[in-house]
């Protein structure tokens, strides 16, 4: 009876889900066709269809040694297909997404397929109105940023109405209201936003260029009962409407540039900030100087309780409303991504300095073709917080505490030796609080040094060779910690390309320094990619280590895997 | 015309609003207080957990706080299931049960991870699986409901054979379809063992006291039909079930939890009851 019951109920559940999805798909297709038809009827038939497609499929093998889990269906695939019809003042479009099932490491709630994104837009010289799904960003994103980042499995687009007005020269007014996408549904909260931006130079004559902006975003979520963490016989008085406001300024005077943004959020107790009533604050200052052959940037960032999302019950990358730009350098060399810094929205304060110099051509130091030197330094601390009551805390300004989250010094040298040979050398020294940054326990601070050498060599007119050698030294500061990191790594890569159609890559990431001898594993990959007429197909095979992928300080963990992968991207 | 549209943009945005909360930040819980009525709607909080789940202790505390607040109205069942409950060489203790694993997968909690749970397996705004911060609201909401069935439990325990007899009586206040099933389970309190708690440093707790741990399903994970056909208001059903306690469980810490749920239709739990095995 039990077995029968389970089968039956599974069937019922599956059937319901399919019916819902099919309904959604057909509704969206009708919606799109209807709009295109009516557009054609109004004489908008002279438009164009645009689109792009991406399919990522992976075949998984179980590998208990590297921790690659068994995938009963063996193959998982993510697929995306964007289509937009653009005609005169109108744009309509939709995106199909299918996760059958979601690639490992993607939120499993994506499982399924449908049209989670569709929109219609009218635009003329002074007005743009969008209904349906849209992406929007105010300033640097501290107050509002909805975006799609497939690598992270993030799509928090708003579904609603947006009106943009361009009343005078560069002045823009944006008003919006909507709900946020949550996988194949929308979240409960309603988001309202208003942004006013423009250049002061349109109104007054100034010796420098100044752009300013002011914005406000408020979310509404119905009341619910949340037990008071300090007294479970009581429930919290929750703010149903939470407002965040921001002001920003960007000034350019000759070779100098100054950017400043400040954001303030009223009480916003959520699961992500442990239901504190402390106001949120964010300050970001950047000053830079750039001239021929030299550039410098100094930045300061302070964040206090600035996690902002449209549902107070969610954590992680779900229903986030804002984006906190990273101070740290974003690396792309493989071993430099082992210990990436993730922005701590509940509180951090840090500084960063970047400088680059181009040593001129045909000088002793610069060589015949010139040499570039780039130096980055960043240091991020925990905020020095003081509890005012069980419900609130305060932090002084700037509020550097003794607790260091992250520090990095990177030096990069790139030099072109001959017409056909270029090299890049990079050294990175990091201090990394693994427990805080990755949300784990028992590791403490990790210190690393990464050395990278890259050679780019043009063999013939169309043949190109790229070789990378990298090494990562990593050790824990406190050897007495309960857990051990995986130690030193070495990495090698050879990429051979025949322009413009073929790319062959062999890479090996070797964890030779793992304290567990059995885990001193080669994570090798082979891949071949080909590009023809706007489409790129890549086929590969290999092992991937467990790790963290970050894009702009926002991260997700990726589980280990072993198997073949196929990806197709293209636009039409 | 332009000004008209500008004002629309502004109005859209100026739905912008803010509620500022000043102390006191919390108020006493209202509603759901014990009544003198004989039949009350009781609530089952299923807390899906695991000893390697460092965020689960916080969730268990939320469930426990609700039980402490409404001892006669709230029943908690801690279901150790999934990855975080899988034994490791260092911690070989296995608190999982086939029933727990089946529910874990069936209700899709495996896809969401621990800690998560259900409150009478009811859907709240289209969601059945709820995060810990949502349990209180759901619990209070369910408690406000008019009960459709009264469920009573009695037990008799034989020390020598370790067999417990469970007497179940259900009295319907409202008519029901034929989809009512009775599930009966054994839970154990005060099981001392390892647990991670990320709020502590170090997070490892060697002697954590696990409460309300699901041990066994007496009549399978989904139970047995209450009746062979539709149920009329006023009907009574009685049944006697037997279960033999595992020697590893301490009878004085064991309880029986029974619930009537709608199966396999909405899965909603209509009523729940709990009784100690050793009175």
Please give a quick description of this structure.
The complex is a heterodimer of chains A (572) and B (279). By secondary structure, chain A is mainly beta.
Walkthrough of the structure:
The complex is a heterodimer of chains A (572) and B (279). By secondary structure, chain A is mainly β. Chain A has helices at residues 2-44, 434-438; strands at 48-60, 75-87, 90-99, 112-123, 127-134, 137-138, 144-145, 148-149, 154-155, 158-165, 172-182, 185-199, 209-220, 227-228, 231-236, 241-253, 256-265, 280-291, 294-304, 347-359, 371-383, 386-389, 392-394, 400-416, 421-433, 445-458, 463-476, 489-498, 502-510, 522-532, 535-544, 547-551, 554-558, 561-571. Chain A has a 24-stranded antiparallel beta barrel. Chain A has a two-stranded antiparallel sheet with strand order 6-7. A two-stranded antiparallel ribbon of chain A has the order 8-9. Chain B is of the alpha+beta class. In chain B, strands 7, 10, 11, 13 and 14 form a five-stranded antiparallel sheet that branches. In chain B, strands 3-2-4 form a three-stranded mixed sheet. A three-stranded antiparallel sheet of chain B has the order 5-6-12, with no helix packed on it. Chains A and B meet through α1, β10, β11, β12 and β13 of A and α1, β1, α2 and α5 of B.
Q: Average the pLDDT over all residues of chain A and give the rounded result.
A: 89
Oligomer, anyone? heterodimer
The amount of beta strand of chain A, in percent, is: over 45%
Q: CATH architecture of chain B, please?
A: Sandwich
Report the major sheet of chain A.
24 strands, antiparallel, barrel
Global Rg of chain B: 22 Å
Biggest sheet record of chain B = 5 strands, antiparallel
How many beta-strand elements of chain A?
A: 34
The best one-word shape of chain A is globular
State which percent range the strand residues of chain B make up: 25-35%
Q: Calculate the terminal CA-CA distance of chain A, rounded to whole Å.
A: 54 Å
């Amino acid at each position: 009876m039990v077995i029968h019951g389970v089968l039956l109920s599974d069937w019922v559940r599956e059937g319901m889900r399919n019916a819902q999805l099919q309904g959604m798909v057909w509704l969206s297709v009708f919606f799109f066709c209807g709009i295109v038809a009516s557009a054609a009827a109004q004489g908008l038939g002279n438009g164009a269809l645009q689109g792009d497609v991406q399919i990522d499929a992976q075949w998984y093998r179980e590998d208990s040694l590297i921790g690659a889990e068994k995938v009963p269906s063996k193959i998982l695939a993510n697929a995306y297909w964007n289509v937009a019809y653009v005609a005169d003042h109108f744009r309509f479009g939709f995106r199909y997404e299918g996760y059958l099932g979601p690639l490992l490491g993607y939120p499993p709630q994506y499982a399924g397929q449908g049209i989670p994104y569709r929109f219609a837009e009218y635009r003329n010289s002074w007005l743009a109105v969008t209904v349906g799904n849209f992406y929007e960003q105010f300033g640097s994103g501290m107050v509002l940023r909805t975006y799609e980042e497939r690598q992270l499995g993030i799509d928090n687009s708003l579904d609603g109405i947006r009106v943009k007005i361009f009343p005078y020269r560069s002045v823009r007014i944006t008003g919006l209201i909507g709900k946020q996408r949550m996988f194949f549904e929308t979240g409960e909260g309603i988001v309202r936003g208003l942004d006013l931006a423009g250049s002061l130079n349109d109104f007054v004559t100034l010796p420098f260029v100044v752009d300013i902006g002011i914005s406000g975003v408020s979310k509404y979520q119905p009341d619910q009962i949340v037990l008071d963490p300090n007294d479970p016989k009581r429930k919290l008085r929750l703010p149903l409407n939470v407002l965040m406001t921001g002001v920003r300024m960007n000034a350019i005077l000759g070779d100098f540039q100054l950017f400043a943004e400040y954001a303030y959020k009223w009480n916003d107790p959520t699961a992500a900030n442990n239901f504190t009533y402390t106001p949120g604050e964010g300050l970001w200052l950047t000053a830079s100087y750039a001239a021929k052959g030299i550039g410098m940037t100094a930045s300061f960032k302070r964040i206090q309780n600035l996690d902002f999302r449209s549902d107070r019950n969610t954590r992680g990358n779900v229903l986030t409303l804002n984006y906190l730009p990273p101070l740290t350098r974003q690396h792309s060399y493989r071993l430099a991504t082992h210990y990436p810094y993730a922005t701590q929205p509940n509180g951090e304060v840090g500084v960063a300095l970047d400088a680059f110099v181009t040593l001129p051509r045909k000088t002793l130091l610069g060589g015949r073709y010139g040499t570039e030197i780039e130096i980055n330094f960043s240091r991020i601390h925990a905020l020095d917080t003081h509890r005012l009551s069980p419900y609130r805390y305060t932090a002084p300004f700037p509020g550097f505490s003794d607790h260091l989250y992250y520090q990095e010094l990177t030096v990069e040298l790139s030099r072109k030796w001959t017409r056909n040979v270029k090299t890049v050398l990079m050294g990175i020294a990091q201090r990394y609080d693994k427990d805080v940054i990755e949300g784990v326990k028992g590791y403490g601070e990790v210190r690393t040094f990464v050395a990278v050498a890259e050679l780019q060599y043009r063999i013939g007119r169309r043949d190109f060779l790229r070789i990378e050698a990298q090494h990562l030294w990593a050790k824990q500061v406190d050897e007495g910690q309960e857990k051990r990191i995986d130690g030193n790594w070495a990495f090698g890569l050879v990429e051979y390309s025949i322009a413009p159609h073929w790319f062959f890559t062999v890479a090996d990431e070797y964890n030779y320094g793992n304290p567990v001898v059995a885990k001193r594993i080669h994570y090798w990959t082979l891949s071949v990619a080909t590009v023809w007429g706007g489409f790129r197909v890549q086929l590969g095979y290999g092992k991937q280590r467990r790790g963290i992928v970050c894009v702009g300080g926002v991260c997700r963990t990726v589980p280990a895997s072993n198997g073949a992968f196929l990806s197709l991207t293209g636009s039409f | 015309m332009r000004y008209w549209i500008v004002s629309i943009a502004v109005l859209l945005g100026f739905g912008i609003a803010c509620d500022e909360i000043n102390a006191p930040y919390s108020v006493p819980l209202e509603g759901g207080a014990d009544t003198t009525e004989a039949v009350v709607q009781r609530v089952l909080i299923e807390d899906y957990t695991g000893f390697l789940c460092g965020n689960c202790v916080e969730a268990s505390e939320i469930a426990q706080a609700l039980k402490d607040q409404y001892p006669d109205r709230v029943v908690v069942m801690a279901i150790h299931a999934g990855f975080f409950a899988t034994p490791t060489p260092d911690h070989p203790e296995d608190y999982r049960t086939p029933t727990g694993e089946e529910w874990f997968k069936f209700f899709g909690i495996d896809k969401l991870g621990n800690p998560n749970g259900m409150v009478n397996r009811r859907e709240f705004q289209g969601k059945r699986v709820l995060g810990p911060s949502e349990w209180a609201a759901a619990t209070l909401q369910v408690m406000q409901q008019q009960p459709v069935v009264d469920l009573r439990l009695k037990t008799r325990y034989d020390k020598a054979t370790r067999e417990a007899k469970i007497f179940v009586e259900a009295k319907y206040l409202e008519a029901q379809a034929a989809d009512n099933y009775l599930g009966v389970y054994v839970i154990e309190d005060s099981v001392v063992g390892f647990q991670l708690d990320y709020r502590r440093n170090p997070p490892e707790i060697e002697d954590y006291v696990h409460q309300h741990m699901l041990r066994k399903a007496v009549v399978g994970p989904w139970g047995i039909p209450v009746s062979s056909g539709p149920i009329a208001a006023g009907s009574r059903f009685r049944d006697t079930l037997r279960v033999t306690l595992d020697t590893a469980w301490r009878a004085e810490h064991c309880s029986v939890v029974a619930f009537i749920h709608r199966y396999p239709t909405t899965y909603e739990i209509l009523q729940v009851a709990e009784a100690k095995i050793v009175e």
